Q: What sequence folds into this?
């Protein structure tokens, strides 16, 4: 059957480029060094490519964000190709090569629901959220509990900024985040042996620690779908499974949540899940890790190298199972 369809780049300008992005386009034209005299004619020049990028993701113009190197700039950086083709995103399948299937995820419109112990529950669209925060880039280590690791440049904002926007009540002790439920696209969600949706949480003081980050970008662009578009948690001192992807719900509670992996196998995956080379997983050692793209294993560090920034969070929690 033949379907007559407009291609993306045939869309009329007005449709492809919402009014609010007009200003950004003007800035782009200016940054290309085109003077005001050339303005009207020049406007049409970059518009097509720009409109295409905008149509794909209206936040494209926000990246790259300015780098914040307060937490160091670990090296060597993992190749973008590797970090975006070797993924854990069980909603799309249980192997590492789900990146193609993840392209079916639609990330606009995208609404995040805020409720639980907050002054007033509300919903917010991702682009409205992006307009309320200051984006920055941070290069972080990532350590998966399976012992592979990577170093990637996330763009986004501190979890604290999100918490402050949500206005939690004084009694809130944990923030809980959930991934989208959409079995029509996230095919593995049809397998009811898993406790969907994917859920993770942080204690309030962990969430308010400046290292805790919400990533909305990666490698200077909007974050790739396979990496958890349009927003995912990044808590680099914890095992990777804490970093819940494609978040649609942020809830505040005074009860510690039971996270996805903890529900599945509490003896192997706990709530705190801080990286510690001295505490083995019940089935393997955590002493070393294999950086993506490298053949050699390197030593794993306590709190994944972030001890100076986060160890004080656990001074009064010695009785807890902090490292698994
Ligand atoms: N919703 C959801 N979030 C998830 C996962 C998942 O399967 N589903 N896997 C986690 C695990 S185990 C890791 S190591 C990281 C992987 O992130 P990456 O694919 O961007 O490297 O995502 C975490 N977040
Ligand atoms: Mo992981």
A:
């Amino acid at each position: 059957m033949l379907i007559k369809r407009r291609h993306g780049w045939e869309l009329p300008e007005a449709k492809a480029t919402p009014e609010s992005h007009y200003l950004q386009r003007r800035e782009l034209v200016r940054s290309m060094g085109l003077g005001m005299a050339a303005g009207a004619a020049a406007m049409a020049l970059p518009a097509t490519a720009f409109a295409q990028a905008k149509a794909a993701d209206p936040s494209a113009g926000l990246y790259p964000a300015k780098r914040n190197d307060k937490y160091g700039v670990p090296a060597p950086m993992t190749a973008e190709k590797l970090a975006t083709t070797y993924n854990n995103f069980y909603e799309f399948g249980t192997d590492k090569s789900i990146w193609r299937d993840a392209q079916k995820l639609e990330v606009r419109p995208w609404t995040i629901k805020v409720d639980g112990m907050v002054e007033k529950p509300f919903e917010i669209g991702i682009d409205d959220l992006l307009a309320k925060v200051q984006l920055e880039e941070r290069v972080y280590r990532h350590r998966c509990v399976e012992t592979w690791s990577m170093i990637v440049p996330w763009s986004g904002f501190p979890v604290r900024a999100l918490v402050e926007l949500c206005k939690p009540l004084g009694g809130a002790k944990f923030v809980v985040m959930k991934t989208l439920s959409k079995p029509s696209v996230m095919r593995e969600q049809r397998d009811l042996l898993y406790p969907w949706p994917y859920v993770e949480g942080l204690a309030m003081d962990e969430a308010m620690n400046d290292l805790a980050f919400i990533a909305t970008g990666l490698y200077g662009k909007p974050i790739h779908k396979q990496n958890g578009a349009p927003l995912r948690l990044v808590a680099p001192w914890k095992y990777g499974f804490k970093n819940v992807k494609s978040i649609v719900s942020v809830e505040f509670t005074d009860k510690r949540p039971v996270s996805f992996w903890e529900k599945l196998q509490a003896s192997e995956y706990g709530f705190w899940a801080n990286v510690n080379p001295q505490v083995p997983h019940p089935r393997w050692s955590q002493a070393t890790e294999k950086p993506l793209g490298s053949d050699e294993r390197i030593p794993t560090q306590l709190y994944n190298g972030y001890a100076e920034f986060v160890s004080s969070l656990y001074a009064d929690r010695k009785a807890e199972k902090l490292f698994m």
Remarks:
- Confidence is low (pLDDT under 50) at residues 1-45.
